[in-house]
Design goal:
CATH class of the domain at 72-227: Mainly Alpha
Strand order of the largest sheet: 1-2-3
Shape: globular
Largest sheet: 3 strands, antiparallel
Low-confidence stretches: 1-24, 302-311
Structural class: mainly alpha
Distance between the termini: 38 Å
Mean pLDDT: 80
CATH architecture of the domain at 72-227: Orthogonal Bundle
CATH topology of the domain at 72-227: Penicillin Amidohydrolase, domain 1
Strand content: 5-15%
């Protein structure tokens, strides 16, 4: 099963379309999301093998190195699932949410995600609870066993959430409410239920804040280890400790010379929030990290099998 846009790693390629070399002017941002935006498969789409309209409609473009516009406010069909929330989908089904408040924006994001990838949400929830084999079969028993032994308990997950700042907790709650609004819609529109629920005899259930917290922790623990046994952050810390701040900054620069913003100048007024981090802020943060890492003890890579520090 393909991994969802928000809840799993997906290969995304981006390109900046430039004008003539003499001007070096950024015209627009472009991207591609293979295979496609939608993870929804209807009963008819499952039995016929056709899937859904946006299940694979970006795959060939990705293969051919053809991108699509990624700027804000692409034209498309719009719906307003509640007051203060408008969701517009472009020609590829990619949603953008325009909201009256920040809470409305998170609600709209949850609603759109549930429309596209409700069954994938369920798969990730089951994975975090050590129940994935109940849905996909005995092949996931080992991973379920590891999750039940090593991941956090519901009480520990709740404690993590309780320590978050109130504004972060409000975002979690709004995102949950958006998902559950779509789940409530399914009670009267069963044709919109992904066919995998029936195919695997999995009930459609409401979403909880704990589900989101668990998935965040699960991804943080699993995605880095797929590519690096110690995780990318540990490799960076080791490089900082052994090679010094200047060496790390050369390997993983805080800023890339020549990089330009992808927000068009005429749209900057749409982002009236606090100014972004300055170079001084970034340097101060790196210095704090360097002081913290200086006293950490790392395992010996030769003995532990851990990745060696970059040269």
């Amino acid at each position: 099963m393909r991994i969802g846009t928000v809840l799993a790693a997906v290969a995304v390629a981006g390109a900046l379309v430039l004008g003539p070399a003499a001007h070096a002017e950024v015209k627009r941002a472009e991207s591609i999301l293979p295979p496609g935006q939608s993870g929804f498969i209807s009963a008819a789409g499952l039995t016929s093998g056709t899937g859904s309209p946006h299940l694979y409609d970006q795959q060939q473009s990705f293969i051919d190195f053809r991108w699509k516009p990624a700027t804000f406010f692409q034209p498309g069909a719009s719906v307003e699932p509640r007051a203060g929330v408008r969701i517009t989908r472009d020609a590829f089904g990619v949603p953008s949410v325009v909201a009256a408040t920040e809470s409305d924006a998170w609600w709209g994001a949850g609603y759109a995600i549930a429309q596209d990838r409700l069954f994938q949400l369920e798969l990730f929830r089951a994975a975090t609870q050590g129940r994935l084999s109940e849905i996909v079969g005995r092949g996931r028993l080992d991973s379920d066993r590891i999750v039940r032994q090593d991941l956090y308990t519901p009480r520990e997950l709740d404690a993590m959430f309780d320590r978050l700042a109130p504004d972060l907790q409000a975002r979690f709650a709004a995102y949950r409410d958006g998902i559950n609004a779509w789940v409530a819609h399914l009670a009267t529109s069963p044709q919109d239920i992904p066919a995998e629920f029936a195919a695997t005899t999995t009930p459609v259930r409401g979403w909880t804040i704990r589900d989101s917290v668990a998935i965040g922790v699960f991804l943080a623990r699993t995605i880095p280890t797929n590519a690096d046994p110690e995780g990318l952050e540990l490799a960076n810390m080791r490089a900082l400790q052994l090679s010094g701040r200047r060496a790390l900054d050369a390997l993983v620069p805080l800023r890339t010379p020549g990089s330009l913003t992808t927000v068009p100048r005429e749209q900057r007024r749409r982002f009236p929030s606090q100014p972004g981090r300055t170079r001084r802020d970034e340097r101060a943060g790196l210095q704090r990290s360097a002081r913290f890492v200086r006293d950490l003890r790392f395992p010996d890579p030769a003995r532990s099998g851990a990745i060696a520090a970059p040269p």
